[in-house]
Specification:
Elements: H1 6-30, E1 37-41, H2 47-56, E2 61-66, H3 69-82, E3 87-91, E4 105-109, H4 118-126, E5 134-141, E6 146-148, H5 152-167, H6 174-184, E7 190-194, E8 197-199, H7 203-222, H8 228-231, H9 233-243, E9 250-252, E10 255-262
Parallel strand pairs: 1-2, 1-4, 2-3, 4-5
Antiparallel strand pairs: 5-10, 6-9, 7-10, 8-9
Amino acid sequence: MLGHSDRELERLRRQGALFSDLTRDLLVRAGLKKAMHVLDIGCGVGDVSLIAADLVSQEGTVKGIDPATEALAIARMRLDADGKPWASFSPGTLESLEDCSQFDAVIGRFILIHLANPAEALSGLRNRLRTGAILSFIEFDLSTAAVHPPLTFFQQCIGWVGEVYRRSGRQLDMGVALFSTFRAAGLTPQMAGLTRITTADDEAGIDFLVDSVRSLLPAIVKLGIATEKTVEIDTLRQRLLQEAASDEYCVFYPRLVGAWAIVP
């Protein structure tokens, strides 16, 4: 839905930085550790793969796959800069995977929400893994994003993003849906939810919201949610900063939910 433009890839990089600490926490809870061999599905620009590479260390391996060659090029540059030769990236999708028996863990972040039938995909993946392997996925609950006390314009922008997912037939809260998705795939998951909270004038948070609206703007207009004139994307950041000029508000980012299970 979001595409793979240069601007979108930059948005993914910023998003990765915002949620890196929470992602690491969830991966540790899921059981990633030194010397494991890990597959990262839908690795994008490499954020989750690089975190996993830290956790498994040079005694393990991490392989990231993604269909977007532009994203993989950035991931490889970041990998070279970090000096982690035990990680690698290559083209691929969840559907193209064959034998995954060599992996101790398969992970993914913000992937299942984009699949037509995530339970079916998870079930197929489970059947390609060895007994004892870890399956771990992390998703958002988009409806939990909020400002408190409410800020009208801020909430409107959050609403635009959520409405795109609703009208496009996506699961708005894929985080809470992880339990039923795992159960439908014959797995009993453990789960944890984490929320990043900042002040409303936190520019990183506002940039995250503006970047999201910008990437979804064609869909926002096409689906009749708002017009380009209403959004005024070129001044959106400035208007949000003005509305949140005081420090009396806090922003609740979308809740990050992790689910993990051992393949029986």
